[in-house]
Amino acid sequence: MEFVTLPVLPLKNIVLFPKLVLPLSVGRDASRAAVESAIKDHEGELILLAQRDPANEAPGPADLHNFGTRAKIRKVLRTSPALIEIVVSGLDRVGIISVEQTGGYLSAKASPMPLLADHSTEEKALQTALFEVAAKAIERINPQAAEQISNLMTNADDPQQLMWLLSTAFSLDMQKLQALLSAETLKGALELAVQYLTEEIRVLEVRQKIVSEAQEEMSKEQRDYVLRRQMKAIQQELGEDDPSKAETEELRKRLAETELPDEARKEAEREFKRFERLPDQSPERHVLRTWLDLVLDLPWTKQTEDNLEIARARQVLNDDHYGLEDVKERILEHLGVLQRNPKAKAPILCFVGPPGVGKTSLGQSIARALGRKFERMSLGGLHDESELRGHRRTYIGAMAGRLIQAIRRSGANNPVLMLDEVDKLGRDFRGDPAAALLEVLDPAQNSTFRDNYLDLPFDLSKVMFVTTANTLDSLPQPLLDRMEVLRLAGYSEEEKVAIANKYLIPRQMTEAGMTEEQLTFPADGLLKLIESYTREAGLRNLERGISRLCRKAALKFAEGRTEAIAMDSAMVVELLGPEFYVPEPARESLPAGVSTGLAWTPAGGDVLYIEATLLPKGKGMTLTGQLGEVMQESAKAAQSFLWAHAEEYGIDPQAFSDFGVHIHVPSGGIPKDGPSAGITLAVALASLYTKKKARHDTAMTGEITLTGRVLPIGGLKEKVLAARRAGINRVIMPEANRKDLRDLPKHVREEMQFFFATRIDDVFRQAIPDLLPEPIEAKPVEV
Q1: Quick one: pLDDT at residue 769?
Q2: Which tens digit of pLDDT belongs to each residue from 306-319?
Q3: CB atoms within 10 A of CB 249
Q4: CA 607, 612, 614 angle in degrees (round to 5)?
Q5: For residue 533, what are the CA distances in angstroms to 78, 152, 259, 525, 530?
Q6: Which of 57, 673, 707, 783 has its CA 20 to 30 A from that of 664?
Q7: Looking at residue 145, what is its pLDDT?
Q8: SS3 330
Q9: Residue 599: helix, strand or coil by DSSP?
Q10: What is the DSSP letter of 428?
Q11: Where are the beta strands (DSSP E) in 365-502?
C-alpha cells in the first residue's frame, strides 16, 4: 500500500473534492506554516482535512475528520504577512492513518482511497438518477455552473466528478459534504448525493415559487398604481372629479350642514382632518369614513313632534287593544304631563305578563298614539355586553351597539324603543348585558350615554323605553328598580271571544280570502275552541286555531262548496278533531281530606285539588306531586298549626303522633311551588283529622303562617278565572287581596261570591261548615 506524508491544512466550513478547484484564504499561523512547508518541501502538495468543530481555532489531531483530499497548490498570492491567498486543485481522496504535530503545523500520514465501484444494476440506476438530478439542476443554479454541468453531462464518463461538482455547486452544508467524501463505496456515495441534491432542488423550487409570487404581487400593485395615476390624469383631462376628492368634499359638506353638539362637532372635525391626510388605500381611512358616517347620520337634534291630542291617542289605543285599561291610562297620563311640561322625561315601562297577551304589539300602539318612530330589539339570549354598548374602534370589524344603531335607523332622538324579552338576558365571560342596561334605563344617567364605538355622549333621555318580560324573577333588583312595572294579566273567556270577534277573526279571514257571507263564527264555536283546544292566558294558540279553521273552510270552497259555513261547536270538533284539553269540572263532592285550591301558571290559572290521607303506624309527613320547597314548608306549617291548636278544633292530639300523613297533589308530572296553597293544605289536613268534608263548590288561595294568619298572594285574576271555568262560584282569599278584585271583569264579580279571611278560622268557617259554628256571610265586593 502506498503512503504519503504531507502537511495538513485544516478547513473550517468547506470540503474540497478531487478534480475540483478551490480558492482559500490562509490566516492561522499553523495553516500558513503548513502552506509554506508544502511549497518548499513537497512540491506544493498538502492534505485538506475538514474540522469537526468549525469554531476551534487551534485544532489538534483528534479534531479532524479521517477522510480528506490530497491537493496541489496552483497559485499563491501573499497579500500581507498575516494572510496568504492560494488556489488548490483536488488530486485524489485519501484516508488518514495518523496525524502529528510537526514544526508548528500538522502533518498526516495518508493513503489514497478511491471509491470502490461494483458496476451493479443498482449502481447504474443511481448514476441515471444523478444525471436526472443534474438536468434539473441546470434550470435552478447560476448560468456559469449550469454550463459546466451541461458539458460534463455531454461527456459523462465519470459519475464521480459529476457528483462532486453538483454537491459543491449546491453549497451543501459541511456535514453532508464530509459524508459524501467519507463514503466507502461509489454506490453509497451516489445514494447520498441523489438524496441530498433532490432535497436541495425541492427547497430551491419552493423558494423560487415564493419569490415568483411576491414579484407577481408587487407587479400587480405597481400595475394598479400606474392605472390609478393614468385614470387620475384622464379624469383631470376630461374635467371630472377624483372619486376620493369627491368623497372628501361630500363629507366636508355634510359636516358643515349637520347640526351637532359642541363636543361631537369638535371630535368629528378633528377626525375629518385625519381622514383628509390619509392615503386612499389606507385601512384607517375606511375606518374613519365609517365612523364619520355614523356621527353624521345620528339624529343628534332631530326629533318627531308628539301628537298630544288625548282623544285621538285614546282612540288609537282602544282600536289596537281590548282591555288593558291600566296600561292605556298610563300612556294617556304621560301625554297629559307633556302638555303641561314638554321637557318631561319619558317613563321607562316594563310590561310583564304571560306569552300572547299583547306586550310587543302594545309598544307599536304607544308609538302610533304618540306619533313617534318605533324600533324594536330583542334581547332574548343576548350574552355579549358589547352587543349593546358597541365595540371599541381598535378592534377589526368594530361597530356601534344595538342601541345606537336603533336610534340611527329611527332617524329621531325620541323614538319608542322596545327592549323585548328583557328577562331572557344571559351573562358569561363577555360581560353582563343586564348591568349595561342600568345606565341606559336610568333617566338620571342616560342623557350622556357613551357607546364604545361612537365614544361620544348621546342623549337618550328623550327616548321612551318599553321593556317586556314574562316574569321578573330573573331580573336583577337594581335593573328592576329603574323600571315602572305594569302587569298584563290573562284574558277571561268572554274577553277572548270579544278580542277574537274584533281582531283575530277579521285578520285571519282576510289572510284566507274568506268573506263574512261565506264564513261565520258563532259564540258557542269560539267558546269550544277556547275551552277544548287552547290552554293559555294569551291569544296565540286561539289565533292559530282560528287560522286553521279559516284554511279548512277555504279548502272546502276551493273544492266546490257554495253554502255558507257556520263554525259552531260541532263544526269545530269535526274540523279540528278530538279535543286537546278536557277541563276538569268541579267535583260534585269531596271526601274528608280533600280541598280545592287555585294555582297560577304561565298559561293562566288552574284548579288544584289537594288530597291527604292518614297512614296507620306511619311516621312524619310524605309529600308527592313534585312539590317545591316552599310548598312543602307550607304543608309543614299547616300541620304544626293544627297540632298546636288540636283541642280548639276537636282533634285528638294523639293522632299526630300515632299516624303518618301523606299529601298528594294530582298532575304529578307538573312541578308546583309557592306559598299560596297554604290555606288549602290547612283545610285538607283539618278535614282529614276531623273527618269532616270540605265544601266542593268552594276554592281558596292564600298563604298561612305558623300562628294562623292568612297572608296575601299574587295572580288573583288568573286564579279566579280558573275557578269560574271549572264551575266553582265561591272563592276564599286573603283580606289584603280585596283590592285586586277590581282587575276582574264586572260580569265575573257579579256572578261569583268572594269571602275574605285574615285568619285561618275565617277559612275553616267557609270551607268546612261543620268544623266551626257561625259562618261568615259573603261580604259585598266594593271596587
Answers
A1: 86
A2: 888 888 888 888 88
A3: 12
A4: 175
A5: 112, 97, 57, 11, 6
A6: 707
A7: 54
A8: helix
A9: strand
A10: B
A11: 374-378, 416-420, 449-450, 457-458, 464-469, 484-487
Instruction: Give Cα 69 to chain centroid, integer Å.
Output: 70
Q: Which residues contact 346 (CB under 8 A, 6 or more apart)?
A: 334, 414, 443, 461, 462, 463, 464, 465
Tens-place pLDDT, residues 747-781 = 888 889 999 999 999 999 999 988 876 544 444 44
List the one residue out of 411, 195, 412, 218 whose CA is nearest residue 303.
412
Helix (H) or strand (E) holding 109: strand 105-112
Q: Are 379 and 350 in contact (CB under 8 A)?
A: no
Give the amino acid at 120: S
Query: For residue 594, what pLDDT band results from cuts at 50, 70 and 90?
Result: very high
Of the candidates 676, 687, 693, 717, the residue annotated as catalytic is 676
Paired residues of 565 in beta bridges: 519
528, 672, 717, 719: which one is catalytic? 719
> Which residue carries 332617524 as its cell?
411
Q: How far apart are CA 130 and CA 119, in angstroms?
A: 15
Find the mean pLDDT for residues 719-732. Answer: 86
CA 627 to chain centre: 35
Evaluate if pTM is beyond 0.85: no
Cβ of 214: how many Cβ atoms within 10 Å? 10
Please report the DSSP string for 163-183 in residue order: HHHHHHHTT--HHHHHHHHT-
Q: What is the spatial distance between Cα 222 and Cα 278, in angstroms, rounded to a whole number?
A: 20
Inter-CA distances, 279 with 248, 254, 296, 458, Å: 12, 21, 22, 31
Cell digits for 181? 467524501
Q: For the range 556-562, what are the long-range contacts, defined as Cβ-Cβ under 8 Å and sequence gap of 24 or more?
A: 557/514, 557/518
CA distance 612 to 593: 5
| Whether the Cβ atoms of residue 770 and residue 683 lie closer than 8 Å to each other | no
**pLDDT bucket at 663, cuts 50 / 70 / 90:** very high
CA 551 to chain centre: 39
Active site residue 676: yes
What are the E-state strand segments in 715-782? Answer: 730-734, 753-757
pLDDT by residue (tens digit) across 468-509? 888 887 788 888 888 888 888 777 777 888 888 888 889 888
Tell me the sheet residues that pair with 92: 70
Per-residue model confidence (pLDDT) at position 711: 93
What is residue 720's three-state secondary structure?
A: helix
**Measured at the alpha carbon of residue 750, what is the angle toward residues 747 and 756, in degrees to the nearest 5?**
125
| DSSP code of residue 357 | S
The answer to whether 538 touches 354, Cβ cutoff 8 Å, is yes
Q: Are 162 and 131 in contact (CB under 8 A)?
A: yes
CA angle 384, 388, 392 (to 5 degrees): 85
**Rg of the chain taking only CA atoms, in angstroms:** 49
Q: What is the dihedral of CA 711, 717, 719, 720, to 10 degrees?
A: 100
Q: What is the DSSP secondary-structure string of 643-665?
A: HHTTGGGT--THHHHHEEEEEE-
Cα angle 591-593-599, degrees, rounded to a multiple of 5: 100
